[in-house]
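Fold this sequence, please.
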Amino acid sequence: MGHFSSLVFIMILVGAAGGIINYYTIATRRTADLNLLIRFVMLGIFVTFLVPFVLSVFGSSLIVDSEGDPANLLNYVAICLAVAISPRFFMSNVSDNVLAEARSTNDRVDMLQYQLRQLQEELLPLIDTETEDDALAEYSNEVAPVPDELDSTSSKVLKTLGCGRFIYRSLAGLCREADTDESTMVKTLGFLTLKSLAGKVGGRKGVRWYITERGRRLIEAGA
């Protein structure tokens, strides 16, 4: 009976010590919390009382051998202390995994938002082209832009922009179809952009050019 009482006292003392160790391990990032300390101590004591059961499951005779043997008694104390502080490692691993998963999720969300912004920038010109505007309805009743304002090169490039199978055209493709050198094409596209007849957008494949609604109306007018 005396040995049993000693083991119970050891488990209570070691369990409480393990709970205090766990508390002060995480308390560096928190303010003092008495209720949290009590919960840690109670948890340490509770898991320590599972030690005899675990030892019996594995067929260990350490409890019996510890009676009158200081070495085995110290081994039992060490096992109790290890079990008492084990919840800290469990909670630490879980929290680390949760934080890592949260960071990974945030990174994926940021990437999706970036891709969404890029897609939005690429689709805006198409949406603007296919959406009727009140200003355009009023503009249709007014005099169309004078085709003579454009030189032959600008008119040719504008028609190339509006008649290709792609909405967003690359500089190389425009040069090839319009049979124009790159320097002239860049200047012409810049002029058309200033006239709001063309526009450009940056995407995953680089800068692409497109024709605006005003440019399409100018082509229909005979530019």
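The CA atoms of residues 29 and 162 lie 63 Å apart. Residues 70-130 form the longest helix (61 residues).
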